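Bit of a strange request maybe. I'm writing a small parser for structure token strings and I need a real example to test against, not something I typed by hand. Could someone generate the tokens for this chain?
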Amino acid sequence: MRAAGEATRERILVATLKELVTYGPGGARVNRIATSARASTERLYAYFPSKGALFAAAIDKVMSDATSELEMTGDDLPGYAGRLFDLFVSHPEYARMDDWLGDQPDANDRRVKTYQPKIDEIRQAQAAGHINPDVDPVSLFHAVHELSRSMAHPGPAMTQLAHENAQPDAPETRRRTVVELVTLLATPRDAQADVPGGARAEEPGRTRADVPAKAQAQDPGKARAQEPGKQRAQDPGKARAQEPGRAQKR
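Reply from user aminoacidic:
Good idea to test on real output. This should exercise your parser:
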């Protein structure tokens, strides 16, 4: 009976997530959930005393499943972003979870407990030199999470823009963009010249490390004027007036 009871509870939670994906918290109906789970409404309430408790349990399942399916290591944040994108694509309920939760304190506490170990992992990777230490770890995790989520399910306007600009809108294209952007965000500055795309602005065969730091910060026009052996061209009139033995006409 215990195994059968657990199976029924699991079916109810799965049906609840499908209902939330389709209708949202405001439109979800317990009777439809019970029918989808092949259980009576009375049976459903035997497991979950209220609609709120049912939704909270469904959210807990989302958080637990997402945590178990996604392992993050600080030395591979771009890989984590790609896997997170895949999870959001295959499980739209995960992507919409933040919209459901809103500002509910209990739900926020669940998210904090789930996200904090990942932020700690980023902080440790920064100390080890794997991730850019200049980026706040909380902001970096937030950026990775929201970038993966929004790119997995772009809105109608972004989809239309992609078509109008003849840009591919396939999931694999958006996934590659997520990984490349997170790579640029996470890579320490002194290693960015080795990142594909990070040295595109440099001259062929020359990396940013080959350019003196002081020269990088100068205006290119000023730097050319200060090259060895080159002097800034003077006004011809002023040059003649300053030649030895030549007096300025009055």
